[in-house]
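Lab notebook, bench 4. Still working through the backlog of constructs that have no structural model yet. Next entry is a single chain of 78 residues. Request: give me the structure tokens for it.
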Amino acid sequence: MSRQTHGTHHQLERLRCLAILLRRKTPFTAWEVAQRFGTVARTIKRDIEFMRDCANWEIDYDPYDRVYKLRAAPTPVL
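Model written out:
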């Protein structure tokens, strides 16, 4: 398996986990998810940016509690 494919596999797993957390309305920190996947918080923040920018997820950040929350369900892209 090439390094690119391996990295993409991990990103898809992270995105799937983030989608589950958001749909369950479970507030989470980037650090918590990063710990679960053995990566850094910045990687999770990039994943969230991808979900916002490319998949139209309406994700809010609460700076007081430092958690991410889903504002509205994503609009399907056809």
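Notes after review: Helices lie at 3-23, 30-37, 41-55. Residues 3-72 form a domain with the Arc Repressor Mutant, subunit A fold (CATH 1.10.10.10). Flag for follow-up if needed.
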